[in-house]
Amino acid sequence: xxxxxxxxxxxxxxxxxxxxxxxxxxxxxxxxxxxxxxxxxxxxxxxxxxxxxxxxxxxxxxxxxxxxxxxxxx
Length: 74
Description:
By secondary structure, this protein is an alpha+beta fold. The protein is 41% helix and 27% strand.
């Protein structure tokens, strides 16, 4: 049976504690993390988010969300 992108995200957060869109793309090949997170919320998962800032390859500041499991959900 094929593992879904949502299942990959859940496993990733359980293993590493959190995920960003960059992590999702580079490590899992997932390009629409926010959409998958929304689907997981519909399935009953709870998330906390933190905004982070970093410089991109051009030295420009960028901000992005880091997703963590929140509450006791699944």
